[in-house]
Amino acid sequence: MMTASSAPVRQSSVRAHNLALVLQTVANSADPISRAAVAAATGLTRATVSALVDDLIAGKLLVEVEPAPRSGAGRPAAGLRLAPDGPAGLGLEINVDYRAACVVDLTGRIRHRLVEAGDQRPVGAGSALAALSLLATEARRRAEADGLTVAGAALAVPGLVTGDDTVRIAPNLGWLDVAVGELGGLPVAVDNEANLAALSELGTGELPPSFVYISGEIGIGAGIVLDGALFRGVRGWSGEIGHLAIDPDGPPCRCGARGCLEQYAGQEAMLRAAGAATVADLAAADLSTAGHALGTAIAAVVNLLDVGTVVLGGIYAPLLPRLRDAIGAEIDRRVLTADWSPVQLRAASYGPDAAMRGAAGAVIRGVLDDPAGWLARTRA
Amino acid sequence: MMTASSAPVRQSSVRAHNLALVLQTVANSADPISRAAVAAATGLTRATVSALVDDLIAGKLLVEVEPAPRSGAGRPAAGLRLAPDGPAGLGLEINVDYRAACVVDLTGRIRHRLVEAGDQRPVGAGSALAALSLLATEARRRAEADGLTVAGAALAVPGLVTGDDTVRIAPNLGWLDVAVGELGGLPVAVDNEANLAALSELGTGELPPSFVYISGEIGIGAGIVLDGALFRGVRGWSGEIGHLAIDPDGPPCRCGARGCLEQYAGQEAMLRAAGAATVADLAAADLSTAGHALGTAIAAVVNLLDVGTVVLGGIYAPLLPRLRDAIGAEIDRRVLTADWSPVQLRAASYGPDAAMRGAAGAVIRGVLDDPAGWLARTRA
DNA sequence: CTCAAATAATTCAACCAATAAACAAATCCG
DNA sequence: CGGATTTGTTTATTGGTTGAATTATTTGAG
């Protein structure tokens, strides 16, 4: 009921917290940063920072680089940066028409990227996962050939996930209650693609700490980021906006209800309405119906969560210029607070790689959030 | 961007955290609890718990009570309970037709309660607040006569609040940009009534850590509790569900849009639809239109946030038996995950006092969450 | 009635991590 | 070249938890 997260704090937790603090201060700095600057930024002592940095360097999380071009008097600073050859994250994705794997290092750079196109639906969950496991193994092999250590793996799926490793239902893949287990010899954290894509957007550093990412694909999902952390809901099923009711008398939806958002702004509905064959054709179509529906849904999200920024991803990203007016009109009409602080609409920065990149990012974020755990692992 | 809340942790923070941990462990225990049991529950050492408890007793946050009826051998335990005569919270409320104040002690008991009925709209913000300040002073006087120390005050208003002390807009009071400042000689934290009512429900201890409280009054608002903490949104304007779109072609709303929830399930709409004069008359009316609208909105909330419990307060609480079927039908239709884990609908435990009680509760929760801060204040 | 067993709470030395202040290193500038 | 300046390290101190030993208070068995 109360908030003091019922775990005791021992001294070692202090160190764990401060290790994370130092590491993240370095991570958030655009340029290499000195120990002294970290101390100033965090409020810790230079002595403490030095001690912490020693640990982080020994654990291959930070590296010292050439002193930055100097100015003024004084001993030159040694620059600190995230280690490009330390732990890395393995990001995996299975979607309707491809499977993919990538390796992202601590600095956020994609080091390897493997994609296999092909319809995953007829294959079945077992074979699809077996093939993905091979892909994961290959990605891992390449990463280790580079001197990277794969710290973990995460998998993005278009569906509902429970308990971190079971796909409860993925309608568009035809999956039901699929336990993922290990892939490429690593335990895998499974999550919804919209959630992970939201994380990858967060990783750009160009967004406020709270926003909602809307993923437009065959289905429509939302990834909710509050205060810099993904909000998953009680069972991990937050962000299911595809079946928000837009019009109680609207067209029937395969979910059994009527007038769901997907019936107006889902990929298939948009193609049908525009008489278009491919997503590319939509760029020239009239999307006002979809836009108004999407705007109504976004207004609901903003009214409920009071987020100031909405990121549109998936097929919406390239179509945003044509959707913006209709969405904006609904927001202005339906969001009471829009007068005081307008809602920002943005297109996603990453294209189809967003979810996979977010999956890898989730792994490295785990290391960045708990470096002490990583250091303990490496020592063992 | 990252999560390690950019403050360094010094050793004293460890103590502050553990003080809160011990205090809350005692608070969450139904019966008096021994130091040894606290140690077992928290994972701290008995020695540490003893030292922390000494501080908490010295600061009038805990008291030792008679050993509980024993069983078995061994030295009898000294029971610990929250102090009934330590800090107390002053809860204030201004609503359309009354103003009120109450004093709640650490244990959650209402010690004093003052209500003045009367339409607050013609009075204007200034006079209403001045009158409330007198009420607050009187409540505080009575509390201190009991030996209580008023730790702070919070005010519930039916409107949007910014920056903890300014009412941006309260449509039903006719307030616009009202800065509250001090009342009864205390700085006041202002918050939305639905938020505070939600907190009071959380305080019952009978709810899961995540739920949504829906307040049905003239307007409709929601208080969102996630993981035991109120979720306020970026600017504190979360939970504005009164203007969720139910039907794009529905009746026009005073907000400028059409088919808002308030036009179906707001107090005035329900009275009009039922041809009733008072809220009491609704108990016998057909509320299916309101119920379906409410159910549609609740389905949206659940799809978005994945909360498993919805608490209905305000005028909805007594009407829940008549609303339940319609709400449930919409939830079943529109919430994909309802098959796996059904959404619980509950009536609120507290009646009209909920918001005021929650305001007082917010104050004592502040003490419970940061006992170290309170101890520092008392020593000064 | 006395003594062993059991449980509660306190005392005390050890330890861990951060701090503050002094010190060493490396550069700039007059 | 020498003082000023900034970075980074060393060392003694301090705050806070731990673990073991100690004291306190009861039940129950002989």
TrEMBL record, chains A, B:
Domain of life: Bacteria
Keyword Transferase: yes
Keywords: Kinase, Transferase
GO MF entries: kinase activity
SUPFAM superfamilies: Actin-like ATPase domain, Winged helix' DNA-binding domain
Transmembrane segments: none
InterPro entries reported for this sequence: ATPase_NBD, ROK, WH-like_DNA-bd_sf, WH_DNA-bd_sf
PANTHER family found in the cross-reference section: BIFUNCTIONAL UDP-N-ACETYLGLUCOSAMINE 2-EPIMERASE_N-ACETYLMANNOSAMINE KINASE, ROK (REPRESSOR, ORF, KINASE) FAMILY
Protein family (similarity comment): Belongs to the ROK (NagC/XylR) family.
Record-given protein name: Putative NBD/HSP70 family sugar kinase
Organism: Pseudosporangium ferrugineum
